[in-house]
Amino acid sequence: MRLIQVGIGKFGWTWAGIVKKSKYWEAAAYVDLDKGILEKASDAYGLPKDRCYTSVDDAFEEVMADAALIVVPPAAHMDVAVKALKAGLHVLIEKPLADTLENAKKIVSEAKKRDLKLAVCQNYRFRRGARTVKGLIETRRVGDPYYAIVNFHKALYLKGFRKTMPNPLLIDMSIHHFDLMRFLFDADAESVFAESWRPEWSWFDGDPSVTVIVNMENGIRVCYAGSWITKGWETTWDGDWRIECSNGEIRWDKNIKITLESKEKVRERLVSMPLEDRLYLLYEFAEAIAKNKEPETSGEDNLKSLAMVFAAIDSAETGRRISVKEYL
């Protein structure tokens, strides 16, 4: 199938390379405001220059395609996504789905109205580590989970829109970990209680550090701590997970280990996946279209992860525990 990629700079450049590797998709056109980036992408990925556009309106009108891949700043997500849907294109969109929950709901509503597929790039679900931990929980290998501690720490020097966001970590990164909580524990969040702050040495304008206590609807409690300006220990991008279970513990960092009641420690072998991460996401998106089924990370499902983000932001601002359902 053919897709029009909107946004080629920085993260979009990586996406263009991944689409090039996919057996299920080919690039039909590139769109970016920067003509220089378009020329470089055309040369690097072999797309004819006459299929490189600076206007989404022109690209959507002139190019035959099945879907749009949207990799632009969150503030532009709603406008570009709605235009793509009105042009009859299925949409795969980078996280977060939108810059506000209201705009995210507008995108979801437009997709439903036109009976088109809308998928969000929650690619962390499609990694071998996450699938392995999910299997351990589903099979009750270590019993029933009841409590988890999740740490995410990176020193990330970002420019552009992320540097000026009021809550850059929560909006742009924690959405991955919140979505993983829902995926791993097979439950939605009931409530969140959060604090966020900006240490004096921070290079971000907003709050790059957070703690969030999440109560899941099935009774599991999660304590989440994140920072984008750490001076020391850095976790993997998936985070460092310690999941306490009724018969032991699951520890997921660079590796996955379980500790049983006997104190025996066992290192788990990662499950096999023919495709992983964003390549799997592209496959899953193509399958959803071909078989007319909802993508695993559909826009409608993703609203439940995005609601956790905005509930956490409001909790940090008000000092109150917030019910996530109020946002849906």
Summarize the SSE layout with pairings.
Layout: E1 2-6, H1 11-21, E2 26-31, H2 35-45, E3 52-53, H3 56-62, E4 67-70, H4 77-86, E5 90-94, H5 101-114, E6 118-121, H6 128-138, E7 145-153, H7 161-164, H8 168-185, E8 189-197, E9 209-216, E10 221-227, E11 240-245, E12 248-252, E13 256-260, E14 265-267, H9 277-290, H10 299-318, E15 322-323
Parallel strand pairs: 1-2, 1-4, 2-3, 4-5, 5-6, 7-10
Antiparallel strand pairs: 7-11, 8-9, 8-15, 9-10, 11-12, 12-13, 13-14
Helix pairs in contact: 4-5, 5-10, 6-8, 8-10
- Domain count: the total is 2
Arithmetic mean of pLDDT: 95
Q: What is the 3D shape?
A: globular
The parts where pLDDT drops under 50 for at least 5 residues are: none
Strand content bin: 15-25%
Q: What can you tell me about this protein's structure?
A:
This protein is an alpha/beta fold and 328 residues long. The chain folds into 2 domains: 2-116, 3-Layer(aba) Sandwich (Rossmann fold), CATH 3.40.50.720; 125-273 and 306-327, Dihydrodipicolinate Reductase, domain 2. Helices cover 37% and strands 24% of the residues. The protein contains 10 helices and 15 strands. The strands form 2 sheets. The protein has a 9-stranded mixed sheet with strand order 14-13-12-11-7-10-9-8-15, with helices on one face. Strands 3-2-1-4-5-6 form a 6-stranded parallel sheet, sandwiched between helices. A hairpin with a 4-residue loop joins strand 9 (209-216) and strand 10. Helix 4 (77-86) packs parallel to helix 5 (101-114), helix 5 runs antiparallel to helix 10 (299-318) and helix 8 (168-185) crosses helix 10. The radius of gyration is 20 Å and the shape is globular. The two termini are 33 Å apart.
